[in-house]
């Protein structure tokens, strides 16, 4: 969502983001609570671009958006380039030359947004997947600034400009779980780049050994480019756990603070608007379903971006959505409509969203028209 003056004049509702401490996403002064699911894909990496949307995903995604709306959902998190096998379009040297080869990527995204709008659903587009990144061209974007800049110039900026102001565009997520890529337990004199505090967290499971500073710069540059192309856009990152998203505990660190992203990439616009934590399995004492969002001591809203009752250590899906709503989180996106490891069934996720359908209390507003 974004500041939309026309919207505000006509219907008196306005999405806004207030950047002060205790900031919140809001709709006409009411805190907006994301109630939704991850799709996250229909055909992993091949949902958008090069004609894939029409061929693979459109019919299914349109049905799923209707289903989300039926059960009171207001948002979906969907993955775009994923590992980089289908989009963006790389040349033989690993530079990006276009969003995709055949020119359907942006129109595909717009079609998806149009259907989302018709169902009063906000879309969070996730650009990259750090949990698994096997395409060497995509890995190289963390190591070569000129390649990263080619992505920004030839794919990201055109995409963001073309979709700027679409009422169903909820946010851009730079990368899912970048901690898979990180060089863990690497000392650094600058606390922003030092991964020793999270040495025992499990981060670095991809075995790519990318220093945290390069991951932060990757995020900082793309976030800044999005803000330049569309100053009203919201930007986030999907961290795999609380370990990399808060300074509140001895074995955690907030690597995505404004100061750390700037220290790594040098772009003052390259900040996140809201934070996002994923959580699975046996929850440790500092995990999202164990404590209030405010216990993380963050100066930005916090969404629980992935979770499931099947990997929750015993909570029901109803308990999970209710917990997020009642404990100061900015919302919850269950994992995931396409199914698979640690996923709940669509029917289970629907029961979760249904818990929050129509809610409008001091905890926040869930359903509202997107115009
Ligand atoms: C939500 O509740 C507030 C406060 O009671 C009210 O002013 C507002 O109109 C409600 N919004 C919707 C969309 O129902």
UniProtKB/TrEMBL annotation:
Keywords: Signal. The keyword Cytoplasm does not apply. It comes from the Eukaryota. Residues 1-22 form the signal peptide. This is Mannan endo-1,4-beta-mannosidase. It comes from Daphnia magna.
């Amino acid at each position: 969502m974004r500041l939309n003056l026309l919207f505000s004049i006509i219907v008196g509702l306005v999405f806004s983001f207030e950047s002060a401490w205790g900031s919140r996403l809001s709709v006409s002064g009411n805190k907006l609570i994301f109630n939704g699911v991850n799709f996250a894909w229909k055909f992993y990496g091949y949902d958008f671009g090069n004609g894939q949307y029409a061929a693979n995903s459109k019919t299914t995604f349109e049905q799923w958006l209707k289903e989300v709306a039926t059960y009171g959902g207001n948002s979906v998190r969907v993955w775009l380039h994923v590992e980089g096998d289908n989009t963006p379009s790389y040349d033989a040297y690993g530079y990006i030359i276009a969003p995709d080869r055949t020119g359907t990527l942006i129109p595909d995204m717009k079609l998806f947004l149009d259907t989302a709008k018709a169902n009063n659903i906000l879309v969070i587009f996730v650009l990259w997947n750090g949990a698994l990144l096997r395409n060497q061209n995509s890995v190289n974007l963390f190591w070569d600034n000129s390649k990263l800049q080619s992505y920004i110039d030839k794919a990201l900026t055109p995409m963001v400009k073309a979709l700027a102001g679409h009422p169903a565009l909820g946010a851009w997520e730079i990368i899912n779980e970048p901690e898979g890529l990180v060089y863990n337990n690497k000392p650094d004199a600058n606390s922003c780049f030092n991964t020793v505090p999270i040495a025992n967290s499990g981060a670095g499971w991809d075995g790519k050994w990318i220093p945290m500073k390069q991951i932060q710069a990757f995020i900082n540059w793309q976030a800044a480019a999005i803000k330049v192309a569309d100053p009203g856009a919201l930007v986030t990152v999907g961290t795999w756990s609380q370990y990399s998203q808060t300074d509140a505990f001895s074995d955690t660190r907030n690597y995505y603070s404004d100061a750390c992203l700037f220290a790594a990439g040098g772009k003052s616009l390259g900040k996140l608007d809201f934070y996002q934590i994923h959580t699975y399995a046996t929850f440790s004492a500092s995990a999202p379903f164990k404590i209030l969002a405010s216990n993380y001591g963050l100066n930005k809203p916090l969404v629980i971006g992935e979770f499931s009752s099947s990997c929750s250590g015993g909570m029901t899906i109803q308990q999970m959505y209710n917990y997020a709503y009642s404990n100061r989180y900015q919302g919850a996106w269950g994992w995931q409509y396409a199914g698979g490891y640690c996923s709940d069934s669509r029917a289970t996720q629907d029961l979760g969203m249904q818990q929050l359908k129509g809610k409008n209390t001091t905890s926040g507003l869930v359903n509202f028209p997107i115009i």
